[in-house]
Amino acid sequence: MASLTVLKFSSEECGTCHRMSNYDAKVAEELGLAFISVMLQDTEVYRRYRRVLLAQYPGKEGMGWPTYLVVSKLEADFEIHGEVKGGMAKGDFRERLRAALPQI
Questions:
Q1: Where are the alpha helices (DSSP H) in the chain?
Q2: Where residue 1 falls among pLDDT bands split at 50, 70, 90?
Q3: Which helix (H) or strand (E) segment is 28 a member of?
Q4: Higher pLDDT, 77 or 103
Q5: In this predicted model, what pLDDT tens digit does every residue of 40-51 receive, in sequence order?
Q6: Pairing mode, if any, of strands 34-39 and 79-85?
Q7: Which domains does the chain have, with CATH numbers?
Q8: Which pLDDT value is given to residue 49?
Q9: pTM higher than 0.85, yes or no?
Q10: Peptide bond just before 102 cis, omega within 30 deg
Q11: What pLDDT is recorded for position 41?
Q12: Best CA proximity match to 12, nearest among 34, 35, 42, 36
């Protein structure tokens, strides 16, 4: 299995996104995943990963704040394996992120 990356799509104005930033990257690391935070206000980073977001949400309908996408082959023909949307406690996030991982 190719290495997996969690892309977090969030906004500076999102309080829930900010609260989850206290533990989301740590949880991803505990699960052996790379983590990239993509703030909508960070134009350069957002442009780089926008194609992944739009593949999952072509019109951005149905996104949650924040939205986490589990992706492999990020720099090539990426593949989205799962997602976690919205705010939640650390333990719930860990369980949902684990459930979003591809079964080997």
A1: 15-20, 24-30, 43-56, 90-100
A2: very low
A3: helix 24-30
A4: 77
A5: 999 999 999 999
A6: unpaired
A7: 4-100 (3.40.30.10)
A8: 95
A9: yes
A10: no
A11: 94
A12: 42
